[in-house]
Amino acid sequence: MILAAEVVREAWRDRWLAIGPASVLILAPLMGVARSLALGGGDKAALDLGLLTMWALAVVLALVIGVTATAPRRDLVWALVRPISRTRFLCERALGVAAALALQVAALTAALLVAALIVGVPVPFAVAPAAVLLWAEACVVAAIATAIAQALPPVPAGLCAAVVAAVGHLADEYAAVAAEGWVPEGVARALFLVVPDLDRFGAQAAVVHEVAGEPVQWALAVGYGAAWCVALVLLATIALARRDLP
Amino acid sequence: MGESAVSVRGLGKIWPGPVYALRSVDLEVGAGEAVVLLGANGSGKSTLLGVLAGLVRPSEGAARLFGVPVEAPESRARLGYAPETPALPARSTPHALLVAAARLSRCREAARRATDALNRLDLADAADRPIGTLSQGARERVALALALVHGPDLIVLDEPLTGLDVDGRARVVGVLREERARGAALLVATHWPEAFAPLADRYVTLRDGAVESA
């Protein structure tokens, strides 16, 4: 796990892991404003905005860390010329990304709790499973970025992964899109198969409205995310094995 | 003759274009032998070294290090490689990077080996500074330290004197002389053959991707 630990160190050295704790500086004023502007249910509005901000930060960081940690950059040649396979290289780096994102989501959750405390908004226990689901979603987004980064330069890879992640949140809309005739039904079905359904990880409404979630559903969603991560990293290893790194 | 450190047979590499970077290259480097690779820019030196380091896939032919095909990760267990103008993680420190490299090469006492390698290349003062803050010459020496940290039996270097001042060049050549005395084989691509004259057993010249003289 040398390379996995190296990814976490890189995320720390590159200051990405500082964003989680620092996000309290954004979350507290945003939640405060949402609470004071809401006509009714100010606490729910504040919590909703806080969770949305936390989600956006986690997804952006997943894209950035996913691409930078696994793209075959020249400054990783020092590791690639060691007696390790490219499959091991990428799998360890991907595990490191998952670990870095776990730290990041934990820090974002802590920041949300601190911001809620400052603003005086009660946070239900459901935020804990929601954080786990957010981590699972971030891992899937990072795996998408990893797969694309083996074929494209970092910036286009990050942008493409962002588009795929956005499409992944439209899974529920495929049928409607096909019915509207915007895209053929076959294309909508194909999208449903080749793009992970990221709405499965959404627990924001459950937290805000204090709806009791089903632990089985959470476990299934995490399993679904893990399956997608394995498939995407496998795809990335195949692409990396075929690449020249002159 | 004993085991070959490098054995290359009919090696070819075609880049998209197509550009013929290597054409039916045959090359042997014996264990403990020092070979200096010469040739103009674009002659295929870096591509050849990239194939040996497992970074570039050959289009045809075969290359082996100590009898192991370069496609197998195990072929790099006894290899130390430094590319031309190496890119290194800017925020990492030389010591941390060398420790990670030594561990990946399955070395025991990785921290001690890292310290030794840095001392040999006069980098003790820079050991814990971010690599991005080091001079180009110091970064070149960090790259060489990465190639040497695990005590390889074959050292493959691409233009190792680029960016070094007079003292730095002397230091690098001195360290390579020690490695040679230890029994390591050397394969060095350079535009400065005179700098390696005291070390070289043989010169091989590439021209347009083919061996012109050996």
Account of the 3D structure:
The complex is a heterodimer of chains A (246) and B (214). With 246 residues, chain A is mainly α. Helix content of chain A is 75%, strand content 0%. Chain A has helices at residues 2-13, 19-22, 24-37, 42-70, 77-80, 86-119, 127-149, 154-168, 174-180, 185-194, 204-208, 215-241. The two termini of chain A are 26 Å apart. With 214 residues, chain B is of the alpha/beta class. A six-stranded mixed sheet of chain B has the order 6-7-8-3-9-10, with helices on both faces. In chain B, strands 2-1-4-5 form a four-stranded antiparallel sheet, covered by helices on one side. Classes of the chains: A mainly alpha (246), B alpha/beta (214). The A-B interface holds A 2-3, 6, 9-10, 13-14, 73-85, 88, 242, 244-246 and B 46-47, 50, 53-57, 73-77, 79, 81, 83, 86-92, 96-97, 100-101, 103-106, 143, 146.
Features:
heterodimer, A: 246 residues, mainly alpha, 12 helices, globular, B: 214 residues, alpha/beta, Rossmann fold, 6-stranded mixed β-sheet, 4-stranded antiparallel β-sheet
What is the helix/strand order of chain B? EEEHEEEHHHEHEEE
Mean pLDDT across residues of chain B: 94
The H-level CATH homologous superfamily of the domain at 4-87 and 151-213 in chain B, spelled out, is P-loop containing nucleotide triphosphate hydrolases
Q: Beta-strand percentage of chain B?
A: 25-35%
Number of helices of chain B: 5
What is the rounded Rg of chain B?
Answer: 17 Å
